[in-house]
Amino acid sequence: MSMGRPLLAAGMMLIAGCGFSAGAGKSVDRSDVEQQVADRLSATVGQKPTAVTCPGDLKAKKGAKMRCRLEASDGTNYGVTVTVTSVDDGRADFRIQVDDKPLST
Questions:
Q1: In the chain, what are the domain boundaries?
Q2: What is the pLDDT of residue 15?
Q3: Where does the record place the DUF4333 domain (predicted)?
Q4: Which of 19, 12, 51, 15 is nearest to 34 (CA)?
Q5: pLDDT band at 67 (very low <50, low <70, confident <90, very high)
Q6: How far is CA 12 from the centre of its chain?
Q7: Which pLDDT score is estimated for 18?
Q8: Gyration radius from the chain CA atoms
Q9: In sequence order, what are the beta bridge partners of 28?
Q10: Higher confidence at residue 39 or residue 4?
Q11: Cα–Cα distance for residue pair 55/95, rounded to 1 Å
Q12: pLDDT of residue 25
């Protein structure tokens, strides 16, 4: 079973409660964000994406957003929005939202 179908069926999937400690620069490292997105999606849809790619570190500031790209196992790409929902004692919590339609090539 490909990952593309469950993601497409989910449409605008929201995953809350993810978070990491922010580093000295008050941001969450890009690789930590990518891994957290992959892990949470895997737990939610039961399949791990082939890849999650984000453009940089996520600012640890409430309301900060970043767009990432998810590649499903069938090669379909989806946009993912990561939004910081709270920052407390150096920990940034964020929400993950997967686009309801694949990205155009």
A1: 4-98
A2: 56
A3: 15-88
A4: 51
A5: very high
A6: 12
A7: 58
A8: 13
A9: 58
A10: 39
A11: 17
A12: 56
- SS3 annotation, 12-36: CCEEEEEEEECCCCCEECHHHHHHH
The two tokens of residue 74 are 């069938």
Q: Can you spell out the DSSP letters for the chain?
A: --SHHHHHHH-S-EEEEEEEE--TTSEE-HHHHHHHHHHHHHHHHSS--SEEE-SSPEE-STT-EEEEEEE-TTS-EEEEEEEEEEEETTEEEEEEEEEEEEPP-
Quickly tell me which residue has 């970043």 as its tokens.
66
Whether the full predicted model's pTM is greater than 0.90, yes or no, is no
Q: In this structure, which amino acid lies at residue 85? A: T
